[in-house]
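task queued by scheduler; priority normal; single chain, no ligands, no partner chains; default sampling; output format set to structure tokens
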Amino acid sequence: MAELQRYEQKAQQVFGEVCVNKALVQQAGFGTRSIPAFVSEWIVTRNAPDGVLDDTSRERIRTFLNKHLPTRDQKEHLKAQLRNGETLTVLDQYRVTVDLHQNEFRLAIPCLDEAAASIESHLPETYPLLLGGGIWGVGKLQYYPPDYQRKTGQIWMVDFRPMQNARLDMDLFCENRAAFELDEWRNLLIASMGYNPEAYSIAQQMHLLTRLVPMVQQRVNLIELAPKGTGKSFIFLNLSRHVRLVSGGKVTAAALFYNNATRQPGLLSNYDVVVFDEAQSISFDNPGEIIGVLKDYLESGSFARGGTQKIEAGAGLVLLANIPLDEYKRPLYDNLFAELPAFLGETAFIDRMHGILPGWELPRIQQSFIATGMGFKADYFGDVLHHLRSRAGYEHLVQQHNMITGTNDRRDLTAISRLATGFCKLLFPHATMSAGDFREYCLKPAVQLRQRVRDQLCLLEPEYEAVRMGW
């Protein structure tokens, strides 16, 4: 094993068991199973607790995978086991919907291609993330054959345990930040995201960290534009159970906001961040209605649909889209929204986005860009990001240090403040920093992100005057 970098040594010493060697997952042999990093790391660390992949731990992982994380080609075998009266304990991404006609919950079990299983009613009430988008966890499944009470056989989930950390001490996490130099801490964050920090410049590392800002700061809205292959969706798929990624296709108002038929809140109420991947190919079933309600939400943090009362939510919105580049790896068109659907290129909508992340400045992902050193476990790190959203005190620090010049526009100031607060939470969770570090690593990237929004608004509509913001 290669000699540990200084930040890796400190991470082991200071944080201990909540860190993991990211190379272990690549070496563990998950085959073709398509599971998020926080799931695969959870499996590895529980079956190789000493951080060593020897023959014994590899066998434990193989046994766990075969017994509790089946592939879809095993579904008929699993159904046969259920039919024979066996109880199965299966790790999967379970999802519950509400059937008001039958007054029942309906459980989706992906590994069985089952969309209408049953579930004990107290479980969705105890674990509300089961509703709507679904959540990874361990479910105990049983089968009840047809009898005089039921016309058809039914699979039932009788118990459920979501994947979550046994303990999370946010005060200790923040205090421990003081043990690291800024570059060491930034490297640890990048490695925890799944990237090799040595493969990226400081400017590129800041672009990567920008992807985390909506996870730590409520109602931050970003657009990342880049060519294919730069890893835009990687962390949103792999890092946190509190993020929901919607990849292309058609999006309904019921799924996004509120389902009037089932009376269930949508994605914006159930997740910290809603991500539209492949935004250049996304469509809405009723663009006029959805964009209208979405603009209201992006501005106010609340929305109403179909006569319902105003619903407040804290989710951020992230758009990821592919754009063409010229021979110098710069955007082919000055209008960055030229190839996005027209309803996403409306200036009133763009103005409500807080920043444009220049993904074209990041290289295509190569194998050497993937983390193979020490970093926070993905499930732990994802929960840290989630809890930083509600941790108080950072906004006051930002107000103390904030010295924005060149604009008095309320949306500009709101955007820069939220973005700078997010960078502060990520880089200085212990709330200790110099004025110079705040300007360079919090305020400067926040202003640059918002400046790109203003530049596009000025280009697209004369109503928006040109501004040049500073810090």
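post-processing summary
- The radius of gyration is 23 Å.
- The first strand starts at residue 19 and ends at 21.
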